[in-house]
């Protein structure tokens, strides 16, 4: 007989919908699809997507899966993320975690431009104006 042993937990990143342009300090939503190639169903809150190490500061509520994702099925997790407060370009990636242990590879990183309000650093009058009240 030939065959293979299926791992207990084997998440595989499939796809994502993440905005690439957000305002500094603001919350936003994103979603990711992961496939369950293991034999354990993802049926409780201990299966989560958290910020992958080395990515931008997009922490916030961990993404969870509901309803349960069974063997050979894909599940979508909606994430509530928060943009860093400093405008810049950041990379955002999520890691599949169960009870504090990482499983599988992180999601594909997304480069997100975080922008802030325009700042006027100097203002000078280069032409005088005369207003008459009538």
Overview of the structural elements:
The chain has strands spanning 11-17, 21-23, 27-36, 47-51, 60-61, 63-64, 74-82, 88-92, 94-98, 101-103, 110-115. It has a four-stranded antiparallel sheet with strand order 1-3-7-5, with no helix packed on it. A four-stranded antiparallel sheet has the order 6-4-9-10, with no helix packed on it. A three-stranded mixed sheet has the order 2-11-8, with no helix packed on it. The model has no long low-confidence stretch (mean pLDDT 86). It is mainly beta and 134 residues long. Helices cover 0% and strands 43% of the residues.
Question: Could you write a compact summary of the structure shown?
Answer:
With 134 residues, this protein is mainly beta. It is 0% helix and 43% strand. The chain is built from no helices and 11 strands.
Sheet with most strands: strand arrangement: 1-3-7-5
The coarse silhouette is rod-shaped
**DSSP strand (E) fraction?**
35-45%
Q: Helix segment count? A: 0
Which properties best describe this structure?
0% helix; mainly beta; 134 residues; rod-shaped
Topology (SSEs and partners):
Elements: E1 11-17, E2 21-23, E3 27-36, E4 47-51, E5 60-61, E6 63-64, E7 74-82, E8 88-92, E9 94-98, E10 101-103, E11 110-115
């Amino acid at each position: 007989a030939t065959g293979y042993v299926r791992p207990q937990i084997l998440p595989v990143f499939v796809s994502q919908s993440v905005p690439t342009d957000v305002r500094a300090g603001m919350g936003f939503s994103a979603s990711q699809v992961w496939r369950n190639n293991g034999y354990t169903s993802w049926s409780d809150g201990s299966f989560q997507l958290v910020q992958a190490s080395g990515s931008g500061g997009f922490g916030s509520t961990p993404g969870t899966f509901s309803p349960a994702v069974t063997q050979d099925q894909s599940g979508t997790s909606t994430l509530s993320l928060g943009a860093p407060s400093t405008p810049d370009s950041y990379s955002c990636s999520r890691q599949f975690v169960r009870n504090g242990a990482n499983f599988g590879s992180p999601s594909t990183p997304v480069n997100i431009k975080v922008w802030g309000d325009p700042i006027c650093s100097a203002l000078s009058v280069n032409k005088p104006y005369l207003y008459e009240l009538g």
